[in-house]
Structure formats: C-alpha cells, structure tokens
Amino acid sequence: MSTEELLTMDDAARLLRVSRWTVFRLMKERQVTSLLVGQRCRRITASSVQAYIARQVEEAA
Fold first, then answer.
1. Burial class (CB in 10 A: 0-12, 13-18, 19+), 36
2. pTM of the predicted model, to two decimals?
3. Residue 50: C-alpha distances to residues 32, 38, 39, 40 (Å)
4. Reading across the β-sheet that carries 41-45, which strands appear in turn?
5. Residue ranges in the chain assigned as alpha helix (H)
6. Domain annotation for the chain: domains and CATH numbers
7. pLDDT per residue over 1-27, tens digit each?
8. What's the CA gap between 36 and 9, in Å, rounded?
9. Are 44 and 22 in contact (CB under 8 A)?
10. How far apart are CA 36 and CA 58, in angstroms?
11. What's the DSSP call for residue 16?
C-alpha cells in the first residue's frame, strides 16, 4: 500500500505560490494528478506537484 501524501487545493496552491484557480486549471489540464475522496473532495498527490515543479525547472533551463 502506498503512503502517498495527499494535498488539498489550498495546500497545493501554497506550495506552488499560486491561486486555488491556478491549481484547478492545472488539474483540469492534467498537469497535476488529483483524485476524488468521497463525492466532492479533491486531493492532489504531492508527487505530482513535485513532478510539475521539476518539469517547469527543466523547461526553463
């Protein structure tokens, strides 16, 4: 069983230093991976946020 850390929209926004709407757009564009917990709660995997940051750094280089 994986112990992947799950982030709320606010947590991910804080890590990326962006708005919640930007995080929502990244989810919609499948730039970060999210999953549904229950019927309404979205959580974002911490590893997908880290991978997104790594891709952005790589593209900037």
1. exposed
2. 0.85
3. 9, 25, 26, 24
4. 6-7, 41-45, 34-37
5. 9-16, 20-28, 46-60
6. 6-60 (1.10.1660)
7. 467 899 999 999 999 999 999 999 999
8. 12
9. no
10. 29
11. H
